[in-house]
């Protein structure tokens, strides 16, 4: 088990080091997310109070920005066929998956650190009501998003359509995450007590646990040649 | 692999028998829908769509269960036959999901006064339809046929895990569907004629589904066999050993 | 110069039994069997599309065969982990390196995946071995093709594999880099590692080999000791009858 986690950590550290050097994903995703917020503020009728729909806007933004960056995760491995090198090494496929997933998770959480303040600034929102509950909801929802996202990015990397296919496969499956994350975020935003989002937190946690098992198992069948 | 040319005969016979049974079932169901079942009082004649809508939904979700089970088996055993069943079931599932999505709004127009309502079960079916579409896109776009089969199998399994979660979440989100009136614990509340007609329709659609599944499966196997024969013909002369030619 | 521990004395280093691979109905390999003793150097020739790369990938456990089996030092090559993974190395014309990492970072990453002890010193030695010690901190992106291939050699041998597979390693190398690769191959042979070299390069492939095999359309049509192969005759027969027949 210690070896398993050490291998996962090595893969994640490698991906994060590459990202820290190039900053290609965090920058493109962050800029895209801010632009979506700008587009929203002009596309919405001025009489609509953004506070009433901010939860939905934020999660749509995160979903699209996150999907945008996921494709790069496996492009890194394709450049010199490094994935082949990883698969030859005595590393469990599950550890490989968890490493790729962890790196994607950190990067998207970084993008969310941009998205939330930008929405607060553009639409005059206040997220300081119950920060712990908000962090819990955002964290759990992002974990679920990235578990499925990493698995399907590995698949779409090996198709002719490439990243075009990714949102088509991913969005229907992510509906549960979107529903619970957006509604919980919305409630916390309008100052409802954290106890009201407990059911959402529980469902998101169950979703994460289920997909942790399913995706870690399925990854071996995806990367095999 | 395809070594037994006889093995499809059983499939064809079973498909023909099922097709006859399905034809009889569908005729019986049609007769009951139009001449036996009474017109429902509150919704009127349009309620008869229900005898197509509900069995189609049942078959569509059953198809998805078959896709998931065969996909699991395929990843485990790598038996081409399991993949052939999965892809056949997925195709039929898409057809029946489409029927649900077409008949639902026709009924909903009268029942709810709107063509489309974000009602949980209808939403779930719509998402099921998108997952089926993704299944075929992924399968077709993969770099090799073998990869496409594996990827589709993974999507089939992940989708089957996801469907209950989608169901749970859309249920939680909003519910305004007419509550089930047929199978309540305290017994059916609808007219017995309506219940009987629905049960016959369910049986007819199930038979129809399995008949089509067997035909489609036979076609898929036949296609693989033709492909194999074509390759064998193109490859008729094996490379001869040239032992000792380099001295 | 080190000599590699030959592993279990009885089992062959690599053994393939009736290996078949089909992609759908398309046969890529139709029953390849051979056995390599520890320290043997086999060169496998064959025209494009003969299934040589497929065979190598099956020997490495990257692709599962449709039928048949492969054993490395008596251990079955199968999906998942196994001691045999530590006993093999693969050098391809793709380097398996990350252009965005430095030379040392690349090797350290692979050292972690192989759970190698004393990583820093090991990586340092490996870089010196391929003459890249001064460039240890430079990103691989800035390296020439030849330098990248040298680093790939260091990556392949980092965990000291007893069996080394080489898949068209000359592709894209300039004469200088090819000469370096030849020295590496000679070293592998002197260190008594078991080698399977797949190449189009007739003269270089023949020079090193103990044993020469030819694969055409998924079958081995020839498998002979180097001693019974005359280089000039081989070149003539190969270009006339093998390469032309496809």
Commentary on this structure:
The complex is a heterotrimer of chains A (225), B (247) and C (246). Chain A is an all-alpha fold and 225 residues long. Chain A has nine helices and no strands. In chain A, 80% of the residues lie in helices and 0% in strands. Chain A starts with a helix and ends with a helix. Chain B has one domain (13-220): Four Helix Bundle (Hemerythrin (Met), subunit A) (Up-down Bundle), CATH 1.20.120. Chain B has six helices and no strands. The longest helix of chain B has 43 residues, at 192-234. The model of chain B is unreliable at 183-188 (pLDDT under 50). Chain C has eight helices and ten strands. In chain C, the strands form two sheets. Chain C has a six-stranded mixed beta sheet, with helices on both faces. In chain C, strands 2-1-4-5 form a four-stranded antiparallel beta sheet, with helices on one face. Chain C is globular. The A-B interface holds A 148, 151, 155-156, 158-161, 165, 168-169, 171-173, 175-176, 179-180, 183, 199, 203, 207, 210-211, 214-215, 218, 221-222, 224 and B 75, 127, 130-131, 133-134, 137-138, 141-143, 147, 150-151, 153-155, 157-159, 161-162, 165-166, 168-170, 172-173.
Low-confidence stretches of chain C: none
**Alpha-beta classification of chain A:** mainly alpha
Overall 3D geometry of chain C?
globular
- Strand % of chain C is 15-25%
The backbone outline of chain A, from C-alpha atoms, is: globular
Main β-sheet, spatial strand arrangement of chain C: 6-7-8-3-9-10
Helix content of chain A: over 70%
Distance between the termini of chain A: 26 Å
Class by SSE composition of chain C: alpha/beta
Q: What can be said about the biggest beta sheet of chain C?
A: 6 strands, mixed
Main beta sheet of chain A: strand number and arrangement? none
Radius of gyration of chain A: 18 Å
